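Hi R.,

Here's the input for the adenosine-5'-diphosphate complex you asked about:
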Amino acid sequence: KRDQEDREKLQHAVDEFDLKAEASTKFSTLPLSQPTTSGLEASHFSNLTDVQAQAIPFGLKGRDILGAAKTGSGKTLAFLVPVLEKLYRAQWTEYDGLGAMIISPTRELAVQIFEVLRKIGRYHTFSAGLVIGGKSLREEAERLGRMNILVCTPGRMLQHLDQTAGIDVDNLQILVLDEADRIMDMGFTSAVDALVEHLPKERQTMLFSATQSKKVSDLARLSLKDPEYVAVHEAS
Ligand code: ADP
Ligand code: MG
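And here is the predicted structure with adenosine-5'-diphosphate in place:
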């Protein structure tokens, strides 16, 4: 009951959060849950990078995002924080199945995202898994059914959606495409299209890339609804 009240208060704070006010520069000024706040603190993240300051408030409010900012600008937290918060506010549990899917172009990047998720998500109770191949499809599938958050590569994820019964995506709340430009450059466009076909239409989608390429806006047109454009330009 107490817990429920806290979540309602948090939701209220998110709804009231003023997007037009001067951008926050610290995580502590954003309406975040206690588990996320503690996870960020324990990981020594206190100041927001530019892309985080611009994207996280919209992400928290459930908006679709098309974000472009160069490598090293902190895009990972720009999507992981809204992912954790959305599932927390929805009181997501193991019985709710898959709540968030994060697609990365390569195994290495997927592993990196997963490690950041484990760090900042350590005080949450969600289950999270990597779907990047390396194990048999069946072994992977057995674990998938119990996951709340998956970090995956497009080809492998599509294989599961097409071929195994281990995964139920009907409740999915958030889809993230990280390094969307590289996903396209590596020839995964049709895999991502096919993957998105499996997902519920009613969901939040965040798409991040290092560049603003024509190909990325094509992908955005397919998967984003009235997106907020976030672009961080290099200082000249
Ligand atoms: P990108 O995905 O844009 O290339 P990353 O999310 O990988 O960037 O972050 C790049 C580096 O910056 C990482 O070492 C990360 O730990 C660090 N970093 C990200 N956000 C912050 C922050 N708010 N404060 C301090 N360091 C940060
Ligand atoms: Mg990145």
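One thing worth noting: The pocket of adenosine-5'-diphosphate (ligand 1) is lined by residues 45, 47-49, 52, 69, 71-77 (CB under 6 Å).

Cheers,
M.
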